[in-house]
Design goal:
Shape: elongated
Radius of gyration: 20 Å
Order of helices and strands: EHHHHHHHHE
Strand order of the largest sheet: 1-2
Low-confidence stretches: none
Number of strands: 2
Mean pLDDT: 82
Helix content: 55-70%
Distance between the termini: 21 Å
Strand content: under 5%
Oligomer: single chain
Number of helices: 8
C-alpha cells in the first residue's frame, strides 16, 4: 500500500478565517430563517422570524464590510486579485474546448495554493457580487416594508422599489442555495481526487499538497 506524503504551509490568516466563518454562519442562518418564515407564513411566529432575518442581515453586512476592508489591508492571499484570473480562465477554456478536458476548470491551480482553481475563483467573484446585491436589496426591503434601517429616509414607503428589491433578493437566495451545494461538493471532490485535506484549511489555516508536486 502506497504511503501518501504531504507538505503543508500556512496560507489562511486568522482574520480571514474568522471572517469566513462569520459570513458563512450568517448566510446559512439567513437561508434557514427565510425558509422557516415561508413555511410558517400563516403562523404568528412569522413576524418574529422576519425580524430575526433582518438582524441577521445586519450581521452579514458587518461581515461583508470586514471582508472588503481586509481584502485591501490584509495579506496578498486575502485580496481580490487572487480571484481575478483571466489568463487561467482562457487556459482552462482552451483545454476544455480543444482537448476536451472539461475538468480543466477545476484542475488548473497554483501548486502553492496562492490562488483557487479558475472555476472556484469565478464562482467566488459571482457570489460576492450576488451577496452585495442581496444586502442592498435587503436594506431596501427593510426601508419599504418595516419603515426602518439606513435607507428609511431615502425610500420610506416607495413600494415600487420594494417589488424590484424582492425579486433580486429572491434571486440571491436561490444562488446561495446553489453556491453552498457547489462549495461543499467541490471540497469533497478535491479531497477524494487529490488525497489532501481541503475542508480543514479555514480552520487550521494550513494548505496541504502532495510532496510529489514539488518535484
Amino acid at each position: 500500500m502506497e504511503t501518501l506524503k504531504l507538505s503543508r504551509r500556512p496560507l489562511f490568516d486568522p482574520i480571514l478565517r474568522t471572517l469566513h466563518a462569520w459570513n458563512g454562519f450568517f448566510i446559512m442562518a439567513l437561508l434557514l430563517t427565510s425558509a422557516a418564515a415561508d413555511a410558517l407564513w400563516l403562523e404568528g411566529s412569522v413576524v418574529g422570524l422576519w425580524r430575526l432575518h433582518v438582524w441577521l442581515g445586519y450581521g452579514l453586512l458587518l461581515g461583508l464590510v470586514g471582508r472588503v476592508v481586509w481584502s485591501l489591508v490584509g495579506p496578498q492571499r486575502a485580496g481580490w486579485a487572487v480571484l481575478w484570473q483571466p489568463q487561467s480562465w482562457r487556459q482552462a477554456w482552451r483545454h476544455a474546448w480543444q482537448d476536451k478536458r472539461w475538468l480543466a476548470w477545476l484542475e488548473t491551480r497554483q501548486k502553492d495554493g496562492s490562488a483557487p482553481p479558475p472555476a472556484a475563483a469565478l464562482v467566488y467573484l459571482i457570489s460576492y457580487g450576488v451577496l452585495l446585491i442581496s444586502v442592498l436589496s435587503g436594506l431596501v426591503l427593510v426601508a419599504v416594508e418595516y419603515d426602518s434601517g439606513p435607507l428609511r429616509a431615502v425610500l420610506g414607503l416607495a413600494f415600487a422599489w420594494g417589488e424590484v428589491a424582492q425579486a433580486w433578493h429572491e434571486i440571491g437566495e436561490k444562488w446561495f442555495y446553489l453556491f453552498l451545494l457547489l462549495h461543499f461538493a467541490a471540497m469533497i471532490w478535491h479531497e477524494r481526487r487529490e488525497g489532501v485535506p481541503v475542508a480543514q484549511g479555514m480552520i487550521s489555516g494550513y494548505y496541504y499538497h502532495r510532496k510529489d508536486e514539488d518535484e
